[in-house]
Amino acid sequence: MSVPDIKTESREDVTPKSLGLSDADVLDMYYYLRLARAVDDRMWALQRSGQAAFVISGQGHEGAQVGTVYALNREKDWLVPFYRSVAAVLTKGMPAAEIFLIQLGKAPDPSSGGRQMPGHYGHRHYKILSTSSPVATQVLHAAGIAYAAKVRQTGEIALTELGEGSTSEGDFAEALNFAAIHRLGVIFVVENNGYAISVPLRKQMAVPNVAMRAAGFGMPGVTVDGSHVLHAYAAARDAAARARRGEGPTLLEVMVPRLTAHSSDDRQEKYRTPDDIAHDRARDPVHMFTEELRGWGILTEAREKEILSRIQHEIDIGTEIAEEAALPDPATATRYVYAEPPEPGFRP
Amino acid sequence: MSVPDIKTESREDVTPKSLGLSDADVLDMYYYLRLARAVDDRMWALQRSGQAAFVISGQGHEGAQVGTVYALNREKDWLVPFYRSVAAVLTKGMPAAEIFLIQLGKAPDPSSGGRQMPGHYGHRHYKILSTSSPVATQVLHAAGIAYAAKVRQTGEIALTELGEGSTSEGDFAEALNFAAIHRLGVIFVVENNGYAISVPLRKQMAVPNVAMRAAGFGMPGVTVDGSHVLHAYAAARDAAARARRGEGPTLLEVMVPRLTAHSSDDRQEKYRTPDDIAHDRARDPVHMFTEELRGWGILTEAREKEILSRIQHEIDIGTEIAEEAALPDPATATRYVYAEPPEPGFRP
Amino acid sequence: MADKRYLDAIHDALHEEMARDGRIVVLGEDVGRKGGVFGVTEGLYEAYGEARVLDTPLAESCIIGVALGMAVNGLIPVPEIQFADFIHPAFDQILSEVARLRYRSNNDYACPMAIRVPYGGGVHGALYHSQSIEAFYAHVPGLKIVAPATPDDAKGLLKAAIRDPDPVMYLEHKKLYRSVRGDVRDGDHVVPIGPAAVRRPGRDLSIFAYGLMLHEALAAAETLAKEGVEAEVVDVRTIKPLDVTTILASVERTNRALIVHEDNRFGGFGAEIAATIAEEGFGFLDAPPTRLCGPDVPGVPFSTPLENWFMLDAEKIAAAARNVVAY
Amino acid sequence: MADKRYLDAIHDALHEEMARDGRIVVLGEDVGRKGGVFGVTEGLYEAYGEARVLDTPLAESCIIGVALGMAVNGLIPVPEIQFADFIHPAFDQILSEVARLRYRSNNDYACPMAIRVPYGGGVHGALYHSQSIEAFYAHVPGLKIVAPATPDDAKGLLKAAIRDPDPVMYLEHKKLYRSVRGDVRDGDHVVPIGPAAVRRPGRDLSIFAYGLMLHEALAAAETLAKEGVEAEVVDVRTIKPLDVTTILASVERTNRALIVHEDNRFGGFGAEIAATIAEEGFGFLDAPPTRLCGPDVPGVPFSTPLENWFMLDAEKIAAAARNVVAY
Ligand SMILES: Cc1ncc(C[n+]2csc(CCOP(=O)(O)OP(=O)(O)O)c2C)c(N)n1
Ligand SMILES: Cc1ncc(C[n+]2csc(CCOP(=O)(O)OP(=O)(O)O)c2C)c(N)n1
Ligand SMILES: [Mg+2]
Ligand SMILES: [Mg+2]
After folding, report:
1. DSSP H or E run through A63
2. pLDDT digits (tens, 9 = 90+) for D170-188
């Protein structure tokens, strides 16, 4: 069988300098990484306290999401997320307070006004497409967005995220094929955490890496260790440059740990060994990026404290805003099935 | 981009002897090849004379179909065909007369009793699955059949056929993935004639060969010139052996010409250049196999005459049987929506 | 006013709309150089180029899924599904994504799109080239559905569908393409989505139909008229939203209702019309609201005697109407 | 007789059937070691092994498509679709392939298969984890559909579905899994597909419901009884084929019909029941056959006040019943 071109940078040769990133840049990434983890921890706290009905977490995926989204033009480009995209949407500009409004299903929830479950992010202002639950449907949407960008010559590119299990859906293959045919500016980010809920990788596919799919559709496939923020950044930056040159899409697979159960409804001890779970813990991107930044002398204790207290403040304010916000009014539940005003006299 | 392992035998080294085939074997293949072409020509004649409403033709695909199906255990293994599978179903054992009964939609049509359009072959006795019109759905059926064969340890394998355009459907990717995961005994035969009705290959995919998809799903991908009956046979025989050894599926792409319009409803001059059409004519498998067999001294004039007169007889008898057969009785149109007897008193 | 075929009216609407608005993109299987398997998109590829007249890979979920992305990013996609029978792989994209985008995002996103779907039987298409699909999509909030029967409506409703701010499924009956001609108003006329049309006034019963069946119903009304039965024939035209006002007003006049569709009966769209009349027009009714629909078998069978058995025609409609009037 | 939860009754039926017949294979997402996201297939993997309890890739079209192949080649597949909301990618395989195989092959092939589909709202599942899908499949000839409301039916109808020679869609309501207990007959009891059940006799009106709504309807009947209104409550149980005989007999007794379902109204399954009563029970009716259904919005919204607004309950049913009786 043929060997795909899997590009995995070894840790040493990737540094802020080698990537031309300033200390401010990497500390900004670090801020988003820690912010995402703090928001996520609070989401679980809200669930345990009974305020939130459900949590679907991004813990373990944050490094890859911060790194890849940071490589975009965050004002101009599109993000087509999935339910684990906490770090991605924060990095794209969504404030922590909005995540909590979504988490509690309050009226000001900017993604759905309390209509969708937690984890269904979307926000036109930040060019984040509205998320649904059926997996992999969004991959085609990203291709369509990129097609429109090409026809309208807007220079926008689209980055979409999904899990490795979701690549089993036909929509994934159809999207890769369409994007490759038209050389569209799409980055397909597959966050491979080894499980589709309880189903391990070997029962999902007969290949070790999803990136191996890329060649068969006519695009490069790259696999990087998603626990290394800068590895994810470097690979996404290359993919974005390729997209802007009009050379087409890239399938970027980021290997990530799943640090929580699938969701608050799942008990992963049922299907994962303690060793397996422990092995994932050791790959925590927060821990790894902290170590790296300290090693490079970029993250001092003072800076870390400053960043964490800033985050703490945002989390507390955000939670407070969300808790105090009103629940949606049932009188609004029939709105926006169609553009308003609706035609009177017709059914439904 | 990675290079898939495309195995294309060069003409010289493939001979009946190199494949261990007797003269009787290859003449039997030749018989099916010529039979398929003769049946197909008659199908068009019936359409021109107004007796058949519609024709969808296998002309150009016959060599690849005879070669691949001949590599099966034709009593034991399964064929999951598509609408161009005239040669395949004949080689699997369906008599010419039955094809004409199908073509004319007569009551004794063994595939559907006149319920389906021409070209929708199926016959449990010959282990040919019933064909529908939506493309690529059958690829999953073949995988399921092979899964049952594995669980029940019947030793059967399944060969399924589809066009290259149909590989764009999500079901194709889902089937490859499932078959690879379970190492199922399936041969996925993609008959690549360069067009999906009017859509040329470059608008269907960004890769030169469908076989390049295989590696990404964890199976070998092979491309052969389908106009060479014995090349198709050799590749299918390898795939069948691999399947019987329990090593899993093979994606076998056969490059074939499309010698007619897509169907009797199409005018291909609208989207194909005369050169393109002429180039396909030169790849006619009937012509090529005739030349090869003559070159090997296997096909004498006498033998060819004998074969052709035998075929002529089958075609004439078959047409006569079909023409004389009754049309379906509308009183039977409500039968077999469900197993009979249906429960009375319920709706519908 | 010009006399045109149903097919040409659809073609003209596409051509005029694409000329009017550069955001409109036609995409589907064989819509390019071939001009579609029925010739509806003939000449568009030459006129507007391959970026705006796009031959897609053979994948319906892809066609609708990328169309959503195009709509979100400033284009107005007009996807063509080659045959209604092949729209099913796109069911999830239409139901879960296209129809729900505005509602689920609380109006942050919209999905303007006109999905053209050739449908219907009587064309020797058998089980997989004859299907009617309105029943599946009528149940999907967020969608609009139109089913024109005349060339003038075919043109005017397609323009309305393309200009609508929400996704509209446009059902064009294959058998009408070349068999029906009629006057098409000149200029940029738009037929609003919603209102039904009383095609023939009558006093003895109301026949509700759309698409091919509208023409069979009108023919049946001619026959009935010779027998002294005056049938009012209502062209439903828009499946969703349904013009309940016009439907009930007609039943109030005639006190009898016959609902006709080509699609099979059980769980079909006729049930919605009949149930609505029964519930909201109960006081008007002198006879049971009656459905005449295709038989409940899995598709239109191929062979001519079987297809004739399946398809409704003026004679079968007239017979059913006589029973309703005789009740 | 044993007192069991709805969920356990389904589990027991699977366990007993797999023990009885080695041809039965359960396949779906997370049905293996995890025992399904709701725990319905708990223990089957350990008891019957991974060849017969198959964790599939995340692909619904694949699940149904391979199941067809398994059925054709001697197995009896029992696919699980994790949530009804996610069955849509398999729509084509179910409608075009599974439901049509016997008819299109003129009885040469059959497709025995029981498709388990957890569905329904009231579980804070929002737009994509609350859907009802019976309306889409009731319109598909070749399928059978059951929707049990009680543990005894849940077990008996699943056994019937697995033993049926044709494909059966088995709709299990998620909210009933742990909220409803009841007596389940011991031994190998099978509840036939088809017959509806009169759960409570009454004289003043007939309420037709299934799934979760059956329980709300029974509670409403209690309330109404206190007011002197005797509602007859009919558990439809089988959506397809529909027990028209029992439905009409009930309306003949009560002369009033209220059809209740959780799913949104327009084009919903209630229309088929209402239209049938209106057409075939016209003479029995003293009031319009009335539908009480979910609102026509794209799915059940998440936030508690919105979900409560969407979901029907005993109170809303009682209120609608009063109007029907007062007509
Ligand atoms: C079409 C569809 N089928 C099933 C589900 C239920 N479901 C939600 S997440 C999930 C597993 C996804 O796994 P993966 O893609 O690897 O993403 P991960 O959760 O591991 O990040 C499943 C089966 C769904 N949301 N959509
Ligand atoms: C799902 C579906 N969509 C569309 C069609 C209409 N259609 C029939 S054949 C065909 C082209 C198939 O091309 P290919 O797979 O290359 O096979 P070929 O006809 O070239 O042998 C199309 C679009 C169909 N049958 N099924
Ligand atoms: Mg995963
Ligand atoms: Mg082709």
Report:
1. helix A62-70
2. 999 999 999 999 999 999 9
Nearest CA to ligand 2 atom 4: C86
DSSP conformational letter for C94: I
Cis? peptide before D241, omega within 30° of 0? yes
As a whole number of angstroms, the distance between CA A184 and CA A147 comes to 6
Catalytic residues of D: 129
C197-326 CATH fold? Rossmann fold (3.40.50)
Pocket flag, ligand 1, residue D58 (CB < 6 Å) = yes
Q: Give the model's confidence band at A8: pLDDT under 50 very low, under 70 low, under 90 confident, else very high.
A: low
Distance spanning both ends of chain A, measured CA to CA: 55
Domain ranges of chain C: 2-184, 197-326
Chains that touch C (3 or more CB pairs under 8 A): A, B, D
C58–B198: do the CB atoms touch at under 8 Å?
A: no
- Cα distance from A151 to chain C (closest Cα, Å)? 7
- Overall average pLDDT of the D195-221 stretch: 98
Is residue C278 within 8 Å of residue C285, measured between CB atoms? Answer: yes
Give the pLDDT score at A13: 83
> Among this protein's residues, is C129 annotated catalytic?
yes
pTM score over 0.90: yes
Helix locations, D205-296, DSSP H: 212-226, 244-254, 269-280
Residues in D closer than 8 angstroms to C290, CB to CB, are 279
Q: Same CATH topology for C2-184 and C197-326? A: yes
A-D CB pairs within 8 A amount to 119
Q: Of the residues C11, C129, C215, C261, which is catalytic?
A: C129
D279, D300, D303, D310: which to substitute to probe chain C, counting the most C Cβ within 10 Å? D279
pLDDT of residue A347: 60
Q: Which one of D31, D302, D310, D313 would you mutate to disrupt binding with A, by most A Cβ within 10 Å of its Cβ? A: D302
Of the ligands numbered here, which is closest to the C-alpha atom of D82? 1
pLDDT of residue B8: 53
Query: Which two structure tokens, joined as six digits, stand for D189?
Result: 């009891």
Whole-angstrom CA distances from D222 to A178, A259, D176, D228 are 58, 49, 20, 10
Confidence check on the interface: ipTM exceeds 0.90, yes or no: yes
Q: How many residues does chain A have?
A: 348
Nearest 5 degrees, angle CA B176-CA B182-CA B186? 55
Q: Tens digits of per-residue pLDDT, A235-289?
A: 999 999 999 999 999 999 999 999 999 999 999 999 999 999 999 999 999 999 9
Q: Which of D51, D110, D241 sits opposite B346 (nearest CB)?
A: D241
Residue ranges of chain B whose pLDDT lies below 70: 1-12, 342-348
Question: What count of Cα atoms within 13 Å lies in the side-chain half-sphere of residue C216?
Answer: 26
C2-184 CATH fold: Rossmann fold (3.40.50)
A196-241 confidence digits (pLDDT tens): 999 999 999 999 999 999 999 999 999 999 999 999 999 999 999 9
**Is some CB atom of chain B closer than 8 A to the CB atom of C309?**
yes
